[in-house]
Write a structure and sequence with these properties.
Strand order of the largest sheet: 2-1-3-4-6-5
Helix content: 40-55%
Strand content: 15-25%
Largest sheet: 6 strands, parallel
Number of domains: 3
Number of helices: 22
Oligomer: single chain
CATH topology of the largest domain: Rossmann fold
Distance between the termini: 76 Å
Radius of gyration: 24 Å
CATH superfamily of the largest domain: Thiamin diphosphate (ThDP)-binding fold, Pyr/PP domains
Shape: globular
Length: 548
């Protein structure tokens, strides 16, 4: 039998180590779908293309190898856009495949035709149309190379149905092993001089450090120097946050306890940070210096313009610093330790509060009590994300999966499903607001069909809680943010999932324990008391941190 370009395409995907393709096919991709059926790759049909892209991007995030998503042309491609942007802004390697009408001769005019390449161009690293079958090996190899190299992101290939059907004689290309260069020796020497000369240095750990295995090197650097550290939201868990030197996570933009430490610092060692992630305010303008340690240079921005850049493999850079640095007697971390003590005391407040609806502090504490140390917490986007980022200590890298780059609602459930596929032996819990959950709640059927064990906690306030917090902070009248919800228990049961409703603060721990240790999918409806948002995160923090 002759080999088609579609067969060759799938052979190339197999050569790249692809295990899963997520998506929804269309008639323009049926030839490719048949080639996938005959391969060793598992095709996972989702209920929406956006969810498929979230899942594929999460596979890329957790493995470092590009996830793959497939859609048809027109509306299938437009449905991908949010998920593709999620991968691109979040630094997640993703290869996007869209079908297209025949490009040599079409009998359907412009039916469903939009310029998908132009649409994808602003939200990908590269976008190409495959115009001949024998070009498949080089285009696929380049797509994976571009998607996976630092900074990772999305790459798009459009595969017209007539090209997919044509014969091809080319062979797949082998992937190449990339050795990332180490840092410049003079940059390391300059960084050491700056760190040793400072009095109050701090370490910032961000997303790029979470992408690569730099935990061991960072832990050794922190052990040797004793320099306290804090993380961005996407840097959580690179270093165990139970450390006595952890200042926590920059969940808020300002006025939290760790911001008092930042204000007192004279040097920030920024490991893996870029301004795509919503930044903590670390620039000191007059006196504070910033060392940028990353795979790539930092574009100048009002909120981030480093004093020194140490470019190259992050682990190599940290290892080089650790080998040569000498702890200094003039380093003074006394104020930072006061901040750490104050923060830990504040986080513990109301963690056992018995009020109902459940306080956010109690929700976070129960999650941490019941999720194992290696368990994975996947978050949608909403007010609870700030509470969890701030109050939930991560014990290992990629055990808190959140998005602080595109920060799209509707991603959490899909992220959790993909995390469970990649880590079937680990417990996975999704936390989503009622608003975000309903944006892709249909993927409960996907989870049931895949037979994954999954706990989904719906934080229920019958409204868009984070925007409500901002609205209240601006002293604006409540308007335009409330809605009603379905009966989430009946909704869960209609899919074949289990459902539970929290009816007291004490219920929450019991329901979490039962769900996490059960088979199948369990949805927990948890009413939340968001009056704590203004009370604690606005008024109380402003008062209490001003006393430090």
């Amino acid at each position: 039998m002759r080999k088609t370009a579609a067969d060759l395409f799938v052979e190339c995907l197999e050569r790249e180590g692809v295990r899963y393709i997520f998506g929804l096919p269309g008639e323009e991709s049926l030839v490719l779908l048949e080639s996938i059926r005959k391969s060793g790759i598992r095709f996972i049909v989702t209920r929406h293309e956006q969810a498929a892209a979230f899942m594929a991007a999460t596979c890329g995030r957790l493995t470092g190898r590009a996830g793959v998503v497939l859609s048809t042309l027109g509306p299938g491609a437009t449905n991908l856009v949010t998920g593709v942007a999620f991968a691109q802004l979040g630094g997640m390697p993703l290869v996007v495949i869209t079908g297209q009408k025949p490009i040599r001769r079409s009998k359907q005019g412009l039916f469903q035709i939009i310029n998908v390449l132009e649409m994808m161009s602003p939200i990908t690293k590269a976008t190409r149309q495959i115009t001949a079958g024998d070009l498949v090996p080089s285009l696929v190899r380049e797509a994976f190379r571009r998607a996976e190299e630092e900074r990772p992101g999305a790459v798009h290939l459009e595969f017209p149905e007539d090209i997919a059907s044509e014969p091809a004689i080319a062979r797949p290309l082998d992937s190449t092993k990339l050795r990332r260069p180490g840092p410049d020796a003079k940059a390391i020497d300059t960084a050491i001089d700056m760190i040793e000369a400072s009095r109050h240095p701090l370490i910032l750990i961000a997303a790029a450090a979470n992408r690569k295995r730099v935990s061991v090197e960072l832990e050794e650097f922190i052990r040797k120097t004793g320099i306290p550290f804090f993380t961005t939201q996407m840097g959580k868990g690179v270093v165990d946050e139970r450390s006595p030197l952890s200042l926590g996570t920059a969940a808020l933009s300002e006025k939290d306890f760790l911001h008092r430490a930042i204000e007192r610092s004279d040097l920030i060692i920024a490991v893996g940070h870029d301004v795509t992630e919503k930044p903590p305010a670390i620039m000191g303008y007059d006196r504070r210096k910033v060392i940028h340690i990353n795979f790539y240079s930092a574009p100048v921005d009002d909120v981030y313009y480093p004093t020194l850049e140490v470019l190259g493999d992050i682990a190599h850079s940290i290892r080089s610093l650790t080998a040569a640095i000498r702890p200094q007697p003039h380093w003074d971390f006394g104020f930072f330790m006061e901040v750490i003590a104050s923060l830990k005391a504040h986080v513990l407040e109301k963690s056992d509060d018995g009020g109902f609806p459940v306080k956010p502090q109690r929700l976070v504490a129960e999650l941490r009590r019941h999720i194992p140390a290696d368990g994975i917490l996947a978050l949608d986007n909403g007010m609870y994300k700030l509470w969890i980022a701030r109050n939930y200590p991560a014990y290992a890298r990629n055990t808190v999966l959140l998005d602080n780059a595109l920060a799209s609602m509707g991603a959490g459930l899909s992220v959790a499903i993909a995390a469970k596929l990649i880590n079937p032996e680990r417990k996975v819990v999704c936390v989503a607001g009622d608003g975000g959950f309903m944006m892709n709640s249909q993927e409960i059927e996907t989870a049931i069909r895949l037979k994954v064990d999954l706990t989904v906690v719906i934080v229920n306030d019958s409204g868009y809680g984070m925007i409500k917090w901002k609205q209240d902070s601006m002293k604006l009248p409540s308007f335009g943010l409330e809605f009603s919800n379905p009966d989430f228990i009946k909704y869960a049961e209609s899919y074949g999932a289990s459902g539970a409703r929290v009816e007291s603060a004490e219920d929450l721990g019991r329901e979490l324990s039962d769900a996490i240790n059960s088979k199948g999918v369990t949805i927990i409806d948890c009413p939340i008391d968001y009056s704590e948002n203004i009370k604690v995160l606005t008024d109380e923090l402003t008062l209490r941190t001003s006393l430090l």
